[in-house]
């Protein structure tokens, strides 16, 4: 990695990045995205795997495979037969509604609480429940959760990391508890946004590769141990194993006993489109978009649940040199909804926009000052991505 990285070594993704920044010739994605692959023609793996490969898939055959999978888990006694992690957002609402009303399953939806709900996020969550779903909402111990969020911000560059931990793990604990062998997520991020080619065209991902792909190369116990040894706000007395249970997946033995193979993707069986999920959820589950554009991008309907979302995407911009607009436009270019030229214009207009609306909420939640925030944020600027111009920072390379 072409950088004197200032913080610790817990954010392992930063050490595998190419030293020269490159942008995809078909979409606008950067080669600084972890696990992405660019071919000799300068085209990213997302464009190859999702735009070109997906157009060759026999989706009727994939639907047959889905029905066969569902039939293997379908229960006739009225009990739940599939767990769907769902915030009430457009994607999970689409999955849950399709499984119940199109395919005749009886889904149990489960929600790992956002760090701090937005008004529209909680409204959409309630609307999903009102659309015909039983839901279990888990809100973790707030005292330890906030400390882990601060630790994750400082040492991983992402306070949102503690949400990802529970979002991935909580659903499987519930599945084990109720003997439900199928857990169905929405899209496969490695396929839709470019990532590990080994898991791109797979119906599920087993828990043994979660850590490397989703958890920045660290297990929770490693993060906590680092915090206890290096932070004055975290000590052994803060840690209660029961409170940490849902931050990590069940054991392999527990998963096997329940017949759970891993994290299944509804997007493997149907051609995934975030925009179409929005239209569907708005019609069938009462999902509502924001009234105003989301900071950092041009859309109004994605990742609306958490006040901390904006800072999550902004820190990605700091760490990797691309942000939320790059993700959104790249997907829409692949879906045929935008031209590359339009995507470039949107990226140059909105990518990296500072999310000021809930910034004070973020500082208050982590109990840090604005000065400390910028000290941490700036420490994640890699030398081959950023340059200092007077008192300001500028990207060394911008998409064209």
Provide tags for this entry.
single chain; 400 residues; mainly alpha; Rossmann fold; three-stranded parallel beta sheet; three-stranded mixed beta sheet; 17 helices; 44% helix; disordered N terminus
* CATH topology term of the largest domain: Rossmann fold
Span between N and C termini?
A: 24 Å
Mean pLDDT: 90
* CATH class membership of the largest domain: Alpha Beta
Sheet with most strands: 3 strands, parallel
Which structural class should the secondary elements be placed in?
A: mainly alpha
Q: Give me the side-by-side strand order of the main sheet.
A: 1-2-3
Instruction: Count helical runs.
Output: 17
Q: Give the amount of beta strand, in percent.
A: 5-15%
